[in-house]
């Protein structure tokens, strides 16, 4: 698993997160063992809430309970999941519970990581966490429950009006077998006989770096992935790579039309401060 969008040239199958049924195939998921699979194998009971992939059979295993992710969970959904998870611990139904809450990410994408909307989303999460500490005490779990809170990535500002790299200005898209993803990291599979030409042309493009698979920096922890493409493009911080401007991922704003500019993104070089996440924990 190397990203939200992947392609397997052997089977001609694509992984497009939340979009296609092929993304649920074991092909994509069996390359590593998630914590919930390890615990389930060890006869532990695992409850998962809105966690992408918990509905997939991985290495022949499913968690005890999976509340499938379908839409962005609301703050009420998040609070209810926390309460239900604590009830599951109290009753002995669960040994591990994991909850995914996406609202901070969504508001950061739409309005930017420093926006009032993103800050309001964080305040809403903080309110639920305040109640969580109270609920832990009320259920008598404070001496036996460990809580870990972490993010899956950071986020930085992007500027579509000024900082867009349009690939069709530098290469013919007909010379590509496949393109996956847009943004800070884009995967390219050149057509037969076109690898060197594509690489040489894109190597001159400013504000991005093109890597052949073996040249990808080891600190990315990426190049040994099964589905890594022959060429990987990595944008400089704040820049956005796409086939052309028409393919930019607009979102449906208050007008009801897909015309809203995205203001924040993640997936840039992992040495950048803005890409860092958080890891908090408390418990006995």
From TrEMBL:
Compartments in which it is found: Cell membrane
InterPro entries given in the database record: Alkaline_phosphatase_core_sf, Phosphodiest/P_Trfase
Single GO MF annotation: glycerophosphocholine cholinephosphodiesterase activity
One annotated Gene Ontology cellular component of this protein: side of membrane
Cofactors named for this entry: Zn(2+)
One GO BP: lipid catabolic process
Gene3D superfamilies attached to this UniProt entry: Alkaline Phosphatase, subunit A
SUPFAM superfamilies referenced in this protein's UniProt entry, alphabetically: Alkaline phosphatase-like
Enzyme class: hydrolase
Record keywords: Cell membrane, Disulfide bond, Glycoprotein, GPI-anchor, Hydrolase, Lipid degradation, Lipid metabolism, Lipoprotein, Membrane, Metal-binding, Phosphoprotein, Signal, Zinc
The keyword Lipid metabolism is assigned to this record: yes
Reactions catalysed, as given in the entry: 1-tetradecanoyl-sn-glycero-3-phosphocholine + H2O = 1-tetradecanoyl-sn-glycerol + phosphocholine + H(+); 1-(9Z,12Z)-octadecadienoyl-sn-glycero-3-phosphocholine + H2O = 1-(9Z,12Z-octadecadienoyl)-sn-glycerol + phosphocholine + H(+); a 1-O-alkyl-sn-glycero-3-phosphocholine + H2O = a 1-O-alkyl-sn-glycerol + phosphocholine + H(+); a 1-acyl-sn-glycero-3-phosphocholine + H2O = a 1-acyl-sn-glycerol + phosphocholine + H(+)
Annotated EC: 3.1.4.38
Entry keyword annotation includes Zinc: yes
One Pfam family of this chain: Phosphodiest
Topology of the protein relative to the lipid bilayer: Lipid-anchor; GPI-anchor
Subunit structure, as described in the record: Homodimer; disulfide-linked. Homotetramer.
Family classification: Belongs to the nucleotide pyrophosphatase/phosphodiesterase family.
Protein's job: Choline-specific glycerophosphodiesterase that hydrolyzes glycerophosphocholine (GPC) and lysophosphatidylcholine (LPC) and contributes to supplying choline to the cells. Has a preference for LPC with short (12:0 and 14:0) or polyunsaturated (18:2 and 20:4) fatty acids. In vitro, hydrolyzes only choline-containing lysophospholipids, such as sphingosylphosphorylcholine (SPC), platelet-activating factor (PAF) and lysoPAF, but not other lysophospholipids.
Name of the protein described by the UniProt record: glycerophosphocholine cholinephosphodiesterase
Organism encoding this protein: Pan troglodytes
